[in-house]
Design brief:
Blueprint lengths: L2 E9 L3 H12 L4 E5 L2 E6 L2 E5 L2 H7 L2 E7 L2 H10 L3 E9 L2 E7 L5 E6 L3
Parallel strand pairs: 1-4, 5-8
Antiparallel strand pairs: 1-5, 2-3, 3-4, 6-7, 7-8
């Protein structure tokens, strides 16, 4: 499995206030979208999320988003290593993803850019 990078997940109360700070910090423009009632802004290595408290409570449990070459391959490797696949693989606006709980209890999202 090829790990291409990681994105830090940040839950914020006010996306409109947070985005300009992270755009300046990361030196880029945020890519915005909505998923399941949560407003999301991806900028640099940060994934900012704002929305209903119940949704954010779930999202806060995911430590980071890890970019991989192929989510299906990641699923197989993770399963072989004893990780529990919580959700996915499934299509997202940016490709495919899955959520996995590692044997140590840490939860990560794995994503690829394949549609």
């Amino acid at each position: 499995m090829d790990i291409l990078g990681a994105t830090l997940r940040v839950c914020v109360d006010d996306l409109e206030t947070a985005v300009p700070f992270y755009e300046r910090l990361a030196g880029g423009t945020a890519l915005r979208f909505e998923r399941g009632g949560v407003q999301v802004a991806a900028v640099g290595c940060f994934l900012l999320m704002s929305g209903p408290a119940a949704e954010l409570e779930v999202l806060r449990k995911v430590a980071a988003t890890i970019a991989v070459k192929d989510v299906e391959e990641a699923r197989q490797v993770l399963s072989d290593l004893g990780a529990h696949i919580v959700a996915g693989p499934m299509a997202t606006p940016a490709g495919r993803n899955l959520i996995a709980m590692h044997p140590d209890g840490a939860i990560y999202e794995y994503v690829d850019r394949q549609a």
